[in-house]
Description:
The chain is an alpha+beta fold. The chain folds into two domains: about 10-230, Chloramphenicol Acetyltransferase (2-Layer Sandwich); about 250-465, Chloramphenicol Acetyltransferase. It has 14 helices and 17 strands.
Amino acid sequence: MAQTPPPIKVHKVYKVSPSQTTTTTTTLPLTFFDIRWLRLPPVERLFFYAFPNPTISFFDSLLPNLKRSLELTLQHFFPLAGNITWPQHSPIPTITYFPGHDSVSLTVSESNDDFDHVSSDFCEVSKRRRLVPGLSVSDDKTSLLALQVTLFPNSGFVIGITTHHAGVDGNCSTVFVKAWAYACSKIMKHPSLSTLPTISLPENLTPFLDRSVIKDAKGLAQSFSDAWMNFSGPNNRSVMLWKNKNNREEVQLDNNESVKGVFELKPSHIQKLKNYVKSKTGITKVSTFSVTVAYSLSCLVKAEQPEQEQVALVFPVDCRSRLEPVVSPTYFGNCLMGRLVLEETEKVMASEGFVTVLKGISEVLNGLESGVLNDVEKWQKKIESVFLEGKKRAYSIAGSTRFGVYGVDFGYGRPKKVDVASVDKTGAFALSESRDGDGGVEIALALKKEQMEVFSSLFYGQFESF
């Protein structure tokens, strides 16, 4: 009896180094924005592309272009080839890059799964896990970036990207992916560029590496570092990643009970929700972000019916444009602050749960006007307690509609699907712009099949009541 071939076959693992970069060791200290993420799980994203071409064209053309353009792009983003370490002589963790030694892992694999199903709006979580690369992790050092390219013969390919959150945030990692795509598409159009030692990037894709722009008058970097050092310490300088109590990897990812679903709010839906909120609350300024998150969370809580008495929502705020002075949009690193909304579970599950959550989000957003870093120490401790204590059902948000992920074109067309795979483990839900570019919003999350059915029914069925 013939054996069934494995669902994925690894052809080769490349070690890709930056092209013609610095010859001296580079050390970047982590800022207080970075250190908060030191041991937290990485961010994983999958970009699905149609590629109905013969396998030979993948290995003879597409793969060499991807690999060479990656070398040229890493020349600008060379810290991504380094590692996060915490030397004994350093009071805070650092990113260290050793030229000629450090590199980025690029795994090339092939899958016999159905590409159309794996890239659809509803897919088993376990099928996509095979497409996600893993970081190299130890107590002494942890890599910042891992990549995987998986071919689905005659159908498509998937680029998997895993980043260490203490190294880069979503905005920064998206700039990197866009820069890589830019370089690859340029080489496709002008093959002679692949022979050059360097490639120029447009200003909006060039990383800003100067970390002195992040001011730390309160000594938060040292304070956050001390907290990590004393966690299971003393003098615990491990940079090993760990799992929080919301992590559901062991529970769901090894079976087919968990599915990933993508839902969309069209512009007409968003406007309808905004009008309803204004009529019920008198709030005049209602953002697309607020109604999207509030509506999605109210449906999710009703679908899951958590036992905890309180629901906690943690969402990120990009501080680049909110700091004084303003930080470059392409700043390399993290520049996020978390904000917390707490509500009684019973109120969120009620008929007006959507409005309840939205009021909480609006109140928090209005508080940003007094300064995004005001009481940052208190906010951080509140958020940490939510995830560490496990007494509240915690939800969080990944991604952003501002990233423009559906515009990432490596020269083979726009992606068919973009998936933040890491939310499958953390219980978060991911936001992105709609792939058709009409101003709508995509919401993606992973649930058990029966919960997904309930969520879907609520998400699309409740509009009649607004």
